[in-house]
């Protein structure tokens, strides 16, 4: 009986630990990952590949201060795709919802909770961030 009771207590504690609500930051990171995976799939999927050709290359980084502008631009492009068939595809509609959710969460829910480590807008298109000028000068001073 004690063994069964102990097992029930352990399972209850385990379920309570796993049922904690996500933080704002964790939700942003999760949505960021989902959007990147969706973009990858849509660019490879035969039925949506031609629709995704109008989108610029995009590497989302929620720690880049330019991410809001990039999300807004991509939402605009997705809402104004060249053909109605592309705009009405369920997977593209799902991607638009995820991007809109991420934009809203960063802009309203997590306002001032996120820390932007870089302001390299080109990194959102290339995937490679270059250090800031001030950081380069600081590095040179440290080396001397």
Automatic annotation (TrEMBL):
InterPro entries: CYTL1
Domain of life (superkingdom): Eukaryota
Short name of any one Pfam family annotated for the protein: CYTL1
Endpoints of the signal sequence: 1-19
Entry keywords, A to Z: Signal
GO biological process: positive regulation of transcription by RNA polymerase II
Full protein name: Cytokine-like protein 1
Organism: Acipenser oxyrinchus oxyrinchus
């Amino acid at each position: 009986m004690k063994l069964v009771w102990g097992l029930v207590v352990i399972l209850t504690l385990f379920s309570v630990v796993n049922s904690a609500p996500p933080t704002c930051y964790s939700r942003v990171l999760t949505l960021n990952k989902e959007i990147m995976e969706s973009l990858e799939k849509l660019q490879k999927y035969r039925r949506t590949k031609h629709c995704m050709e109008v989108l610029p290359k995009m590497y989302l980084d929620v720690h880049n201060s330019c991410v809001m502008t990039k999300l807004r631009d991509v939402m605009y492009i997705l809402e104004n795709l060249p053909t109605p068939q592309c705009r009405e595809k369920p997977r593209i509609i799902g991607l638009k919802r995820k991007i809109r959710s991420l934009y809203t969460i960063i802009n309203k829910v997590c306002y001032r909770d996120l820390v932007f480590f870089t302001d390299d807008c080109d990194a959102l298109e290339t995937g490679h961030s270059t250090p800031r000028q001030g950081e380069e000068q600081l590095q040179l001073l440290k080396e001397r």
